Amino acid sequence: MRITVGTFNLSNLFSRWNFKGKITKDDYKLKSTVEYKFTDSENYKIRTYKGKLVEEKPEKDRALLTKRIKDMDIDILAVQEVEDIDTLKSFNRESLNNLYPYQVLVEGNDPRLIDVGLLSKYPIGAVISWQKATHPSKPNDPVFGRDLLEVEIMDKERSKILFTLFNNHLKSNYIPWDAKDKEKEAQESNEQRKRQAETTAKIIKARMGAGSSFIILGDMNDTEKSEWIEPFTKDPELRLTNALLNATETRPAKPDDPPPPTTVWTHRYKPTGKSAEYLLYDQIWLSQPLADKLREAKIDRRTKHSGDGSDHDPAWIKLEI
Predict the structure, then answer these.
(1) Is residue 306 part of a domain?
(2) DSSP string, 196-260
(3) Cis peptide leading into 314, omega within 30 of 0?
(4) Are the CB atoms for 281 and 49 separated by under 8 Å?
(5) DSSP track, 50-66
């Protein structure tokens, strides 16, 4: 049996609606205090982040996401940056024409309202959220900014577990433009990502016995060789394999100067006044039983430097189970 598994950061997939009505910039003002102005007497639940209105994902970007996902047509897709389960379900229903019968998302910790989730053509078994997990160095704070979402994938008859997925979205590298000490902020972000990697390894070793079939995937916000995520990528007990090591592109990258140094990348970042960086932020790691079943790895390449519907490119693998 062949089964395809992938990961895709959908880049702020927010719903069209703020509860009972659609909110536009004309309905919202930001002064020294926040002022809400409405054209009728309806009650609204308004999404804001750092004093700014959180708006729906533009329709043209939703359409691009839809086309990419339909073109890939993979069996199981781990997703990141989705507002909530209702948004994921409506996206699957309205945009993907119910391509995926099973959808999973548990509200996480992110103040920007983005969560990790799953779309699957295969039945789902147990679902566990690790959003409340902590690290010994900060025992009173959740270590995951979003969540570590554990999901069992069953066969079509629900007779056995095929493997377990661990969907992650690690600490971002983003540094606020007004940060007083950017180097300190960057170091703190790296240390937080390392704590998340350490916790990921600890949880999976406790949950998965020897010889277990599992996949760690998602947006790691770091390169596959980074020291900050080594606590799970190089853990001698987990013995993981980078499933995208020899991934091929669905199409060549858009020409750049200089060109990407490798074809294995999912995220492009161009610092001001510098050359673009091409990084494998979106990763898929396999336990040894599944590494032996890996048959193919692909990255769907964007057509624009900024990305097609997302600033990340989706990646997926084909397994022979």
Answers:
(1) yes
(2) HHHHHHHHHHHHS-TT--EEEEEE-SS-TT-TTSHHHHT-TTT--EETTTT-EESSPPPP-SSPP
(3) no
(4) no
(5) TTEE-PPPPHHHHHHHH
Q: Which residues contact 145 (CB under 8 A, 6 or more apart)?
A: 108, 109, 110, 169, 170, 171, 172, 192, 196
Closest CA to 126 of 23, 235, 207: 207
Quote the tokens at residue 70. Answer: 């339909």
Q: Look up the domain containing 215 and give its range.
A: 2-17+49-320
pTM higher than 0.85: yes
Q: Of 4-18, 201-215, 273-287, which range is least confident?
A: 4-18
Summarize pLDDT for 193-246 with one digit per residue, the tens: 999 999 999 999 999 988 999 999 999 999 999 999 999 999 999 999 999 999
Contact of 68 with 315, CB cutoff 8 Å: no
Tens digits of per-residue pLDDT, 99-121?
A: 999 999 999 999 888 999 999 99
Residue 279 maps to which CATH number?
Answer: 3.60.10.10
40 assigned to some structural domain? no
